[in-house]
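Hi there. Long-time user, first ticket. I'm pasting a complex I've been working with (about 506 residues overall). I'd like to know whether the download I got is complete or cut off, because the file seemed smaller than I expected. Thanks.
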Amino acid sequence: MPWFFVVAAGMIGYGLVDGLVFAPPDYQQGDAFRIIYVHAPSAWLSLFSYSTMAFAGAVALIWRIKVGYAVAAAAAPIGASFTLAALVTGSLWGRPMWGTYWAWDPRLTSELILLFLYFGVISLRQAFEDPARGDRASALLGIVGFVNVPIVHFSVYWWNSLHQGGTVMRLGKPEMPGSMLWPLLAMLCGFMFFFGAVLCMRVRGEILLRERQATWVREAVQA
Amino acid sequence: MSVGVFRAMGLILRRELRLSFRRPDQLLQPLVFFLIVTTLFPLALSPLLSLLRDMAPGVLWVAALLSSLLSVENLFKSDADDGTLEQLALSAQPLGAIVIAKTLAHWLVSGAALVAMSPLVATALAIPTRAFGTMLASLALGTLTLSWLGAIGAGLTVGLRRGNVLLSLIVLPLAMPLLIFGASATDRAIGGESPAGALYFLAALCVFTSSLGPLAASAALRITLE
Amino acid sequence: MIRAGFWAMGGYARFVWPSIGFALSVLVWNVWSALRHQARTLVRVRRALQMARSEES
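Hi, the file is complete. Here it is re-exported in full:
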């Protein structure tokens, strides 16, 4: 796990330096496009951690695998923080490009809904006095709210949107030259590794909390 | 003695309707709330008819959303408090059927009543008569969808002491797409354009929530009750 | 050392640096809160174990 942090730090460090210093400015957006190096990975993680949360919740609900609840509980706050990061960096990007910090555009609105869903899932879990019940209820809400994830992802294609289309995931011919693309890919991978690392840390805590009656926990804690 | 599923659903539906007609105050509260909220907007913003007409679809939909949210809180609550819900869940009938009957009853007394009252509010908000058909259709589809979403939220929060705030936190984000398409359908009809696209979308949402809503809501009840 | 006008970001410094800063602070917050979560959990689990032990004895 410290391993994950090292890889993540290395990739994010490389991505930041290469993206901010060496990549050429965009011919349309100038240097403002450099916000993409933190915006796109945050937005990607906001969806990825929601999917992780919903999937882990579904696994836990259907097959009664308790680790799933631990993963779902751990992924929620991480995802919420990156959703917030995507919204903030996006609006700081929108100001110079669209002339406004916020537009009621499908992509932006659905991302905001995603943030509210995270809040709902987190507070529903905390509302129950019986943690096991809170786990199951919030897992179900996470699954129900999952319908929003494809809406966020495809909103750029389904509606005429201010928001530009995807640039990286287009297979075949990416729209970016390599000098801009490589740092972005490094940032994406770095953020993913970071997510993995933080998730592991939180999952450890969540499992410890859930299994505090087990003997192995007693031994581990006392050691 | 065994009772068929549909007969059981009919019985529950009748019971729910009878219960709500015995308590006319509870029946009327969401409707009065709907009226009051729509009255607030002209008072707060501007009584200019041309301006009102632009805002009217949004006002109608926000009011419908809030009033549905207000009434859905009681969907399972009183039955859960006195233990009826547990008995129903323990009965031979599938929980999904019970949820369907209860939600349909909720829609009949809140949603359908609201739809029936909307022409009155629409006239007050200066919506032209030619948009009434679209408005009624979109509200009918929308309030049914809202009832399903509300049933999921109510099922998840039924055992909680401070469930009402949480209920809005859960249901409102899920209802946002509905608000967007519902308001845009009415808006287009007022502007004289074809509202078909938005109406189809509303119908799709309605079918989607009607088919998966009972499953999700009964799963939620099973979690919170047991 | 770095190319001229790097900090100016072609006039967009006002937007680029805060967004980089915010994203980095979110990363830092995640590490901090995960650490705090672990520490708190340990305290809670230890306390629960101690209470269980004192009831046994």
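A couple of notes from our side: Residues 66-98 of chain A form the longest helix (33 residues). The CA atoms of residues 66 and 180 of chain A lie 43 Å apart.
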